Amino acid sequence: MKKVLLIGADGMLGGELKERLEKKYEVVGTTLETLDICNRDAVFAKANEVKPYFIINCAAFTNVDACEVKEDVALAVNGTAVGNIADAAKANDATFIHISTDYVFAGDLDVEKAYTEDMQPNPVSAYGRTKLVGEENAKKAEKYYILRTAWLYGIRGKNFVKTMLRLSKEKDEITVVDDQNGSPTTTTTLCEIIEAIMEKEPEYGIYHSTNEGFTTWCRFTRKIFEFANISTKVRAITSKEYKEMYPQSSDRPTNSKLSKEKLHKIGINPKPWEEALKEYLKEELK
Ligand SMILES: NC(=O)c1ccc[n+]([C@@H]2O[C@H](COP(=O)([O-])OP(=O)(O)OC[C@H]3O[C@@H](n4cnc5c(N)ncnc54)[C@H](OP(=O)(O)O)[C@@H]3O)[C@@H](O)[C@H]2O)c1
Prior knowledge:
alpha/beta; two-stranded parallel sheet; binds NADP nicotinamide-adenine-dinucleotide phosphate
């Protein structure tokens, strides 16, 4: 059985991934309590002790708005610490799987088009900037996969779907941004992609890893309510209107569409976001 060092094993993605991988791999999971990735010596000590075949990093500073006011902390976790893991992976000849984000892109691409892996990142937020530093550091592992995901939600964490379900109980009408485009992605789909990458071990590099298809936050919300039989009205607003309501909020890309062509070429075909949402809601509303 191959050994896996899974970092961030109690997060929204990490928690589900750990449960799934334990069926096929010998998994050692770490959390912030047991391994602070900002502590370089501790990261090396753990990698040297476990001697894993794969190191997977699901740990991150993921609160996009908080990153704006704590960019130094976000940089330490999302940027510098990824270099600790990459170096430890290289020293142990392990393959490094790192999770990144659509927010590394500026989002000003023609909205009819989707970003490919070779396009130039140019983040508009502190979160995106720090995650981009993380990507550059991840490459130091040499044997690496950087999986850029987007609009992630899962049973184990606080997420957009849960927030919308809660708001639907509190309000008759909610307002949601309708000019940001991307792919809602379940942690289950991302786990499936990670597992397929681990099995296939394709060429090292960056892979866009989301559910298939594109929507806006507003249309996503309407679909959540349709599938959950909720009658709360959803009113579309622009990002500009949202920013006026919440001036502290981070800027977000208008076009967050990630092309999955490269993933398709290696035989990985994620399911459409609507199908994944249906499956998620079945579990969430049980
Ligand atoms: N959520 C999204 O919409 C989204 C979108 C695109 C990409 N991603 C990426 O997907 C990955 C997984 O995200 P997620 O939503 O599952 O994240 P999450 O639920 O926030 O989990 C991240 C975990 O990292 C831990 N952590 C924070 N600082 C740490 C440190 N210094 N050392 C060790 N652990 C630390 C957190 O612990 P505490 O909770 O105790 O702080 C938490 O358990 C991340 O790389 C994220 O950037 C997420």
